[in-house]
Amino acid sequence: MDWDEFAVWGEKISQWAADYHKTLRDRPVRAQTALGDIAAQLPDSPPEAGEAMDAIIGDFERIVMPGMTHWQHPRFFAYFPANAAPPSMLAEMLVTTIAAQCMLWQTSPAATEMEGIMVDWLRQAMGLPEQMTGVIQDSASSATLSAILTMRERATGYSGNREGLAGKGNLRIYCSDQVHSSIDRACWVAGIGQDNLVKLPTSGPRHSIDADALRAAIQADRAAGHSPAGIIAITGGTGIGACDVLGPVLKVAEDEDLYTHLDAAWAGAAMICPVFRADFWADVEGFDSIVFNPHKWLGAQFDCSVQFLKDATPQLNTLKIEPEYLKTTGAEVTNYSEWTIPLGRRFRALKLWFLIRAYGLEGLRMRLRNHVTWASEVCEAIRSMDGFDIVTEPIFSLFSFRCPGDDAMQQALVDALNDDGRIYVTQGSFGGQKIIRFQVGQFETTREDVMMAVDVIADVYRRIS
Ligand SMILES: *Cc1c(COP(=O)(O)O)cnc(C)c1O
């Protein structure tokens, strides 16, 4: 393909992108294909001769598109959002075009310097202390793994990387039973082990960890000869939006000299709104590490996960490695690949720059506040439906409910709703029961889209009951 042909297709694809987004409401949110439908239409083996781009793009429309679930659909109420606001998509097109590998300052100074400034813009927007720095990672899972490895190294006097973990006893990590599975997996791969991840029960309106129980668990572990290494708190757990009360957790960490990490992957975005910041993030400045995903609720196209660090030194002592071929000469520079596990890195800061400039913080805040308001309105409407119960009250823009009937009926309603296609929801569990989760957060959703869910739920429930 030459660049003139590229330009022709590039223009066509831009037009296609705009048309796609303008007609999203007419498509079923979740793909309506059966298992194997797409694979059956793809050739078993690669072509020997090159094919024309119009044939390839024609097949993309014909074969691939029916098998896509539309995450940018305004009636996507499942999981958490993975928003891609249009200015962030444009930035990604530019990043893809230049295709720089931004592992070191010198491999693209603009990417490194922009990253530092964007992390600082977000730090200010979220009211975090001036000395906090940070890095943009691909995912919260990677940021959490970095933090847990740091806990491990700090607790072993930075000897784990060198010597391995044999003979180092049981390193222990503490959290509530509402944490995301990425915390479990980070403990697996960090060599800490699932059995050394201590999950404590939650209580109260926001399903928070009990700091006294946390302290007691740590002290009992010390008495048993284990080595406490760190505490993980959450703001906005994935299941039902659980939020820990931060101050008491930090007090325990301070008394016990433990490293702390806060998982705010989803709800961190809301902290740019002073009303939520004041309500949920008192004392947050005490955390050693905080992760939040601008690629979820905020609107920066996937992938983009910001990890803030009170002091980057412990993480650098854990992850930095500098073979000769990565050494740079001249002035002291920041090489962000030393802060993370992967060496290679995309230019992720550009889409934040485009996003924040195009909407301004106030444009982004307005969406988040609207989502929270609409979530509470739709929650009240479902509460008033005959036989329907709200199981967990809205925390930010997430709540859960049950229709009349047993667990099988809840799953039947979820499946029927998603087969219907006008909305998309997913199930969860709480208190030993199946629940139907509902979150509002798609970037272009309107109050009308959100309230339409009430009629769809009533309609589909009537049909299957
Ligand atoms: C989505 C989510 C994660 C995982 O995020 P990735 O970026 O996909 O790794 C972790 N924690 C919470 C609370 C989440 O909502």
Layout of strands and helices, then pairs:
Elements: H1 3-22, H2 53-64, H3 86-98, H4 109-125, E1 133-137, H5 140-155, H6 160-163, E2 171-176, H7 181-189, E3 197-200, E4 202-203, E5 208-209, H8 211-223, E6 227-234, H9 246-256, E7 259-263, H10 274-280, E8 289-292, H11 294-298, E9 305-309, H12 313-319, H13 349-383, E10 389-395, E11 398-402, H14 407-420, E12 426-430, E13 433-439, H15 447-464
The structure holds pyridoxal-5'-phosphate.
Family: Belongs to the group II decarboxylase family.
Cofactor: pyridoxal 5'-phosphate
Pfam family, one: Pyridoxal_deC
Report on the architecture of this protein.
It comes from Cognatishimia coralii. Pfam families: Pyridoxal_deC. Its cofactor is pyridoxal 5'-phosphate. Keywords: Decarboxylase, Lyase, Pyridoxal phosphate. With 465 residues, the chain is of the alpha/beta class. The chain has helices at 3-22, 53-64, 86-98, 109-125, 140-155, 160-163, 181-189, 211-223, 246-256, 274-280, 294-298, 313-319, 349-383, 407-420, 447-464, and strands at residues 133-137, 171-176, 197-200, 202-203, 208-209, 227-234, 259-263, 289-292, 305-309, 389-395, 398-402, 426-430, 433-439. It has two domains: 1-30 and 69-85 and 350-465, Aspartate Aminotransferase, domain 1, CATH 3.90.1150.170; 101-346, Type I PLP-dependent aspartate aminotransferase-like (Major domain) (Aspartate Aminotransferase, domain 2). Helices cover 43% and strands 14% of the residues. It has a seven-stranded mixed sheet, sandwiched between helices. The protein has a four-stranded antiparallel sheet with strand order 10-11-13-12, with helices on one face. It has a two-stranded antiparallel sheet with strand order 4-5. Helix 7 links the parallel strand 2 (171-176) and strand 3 (197-200). Helix 3 (86-98) runs antiparallel to helix 13, helix 4 (109-125) packs parallel to helix 13 (349-383) and helix 14 (407-420) packs across helix 15 (447-464). The N and C termini lie far apart (56 Å). The model has no long low-confidence stretch (mean pLDDT 97). It binds pyridoxal-5'-phosphate. Pyridoxal-5'-phosphate (PLP) is lined by residues 80, 139-141, 180, 182, 236-238, 263, 265-266, 293, 305.
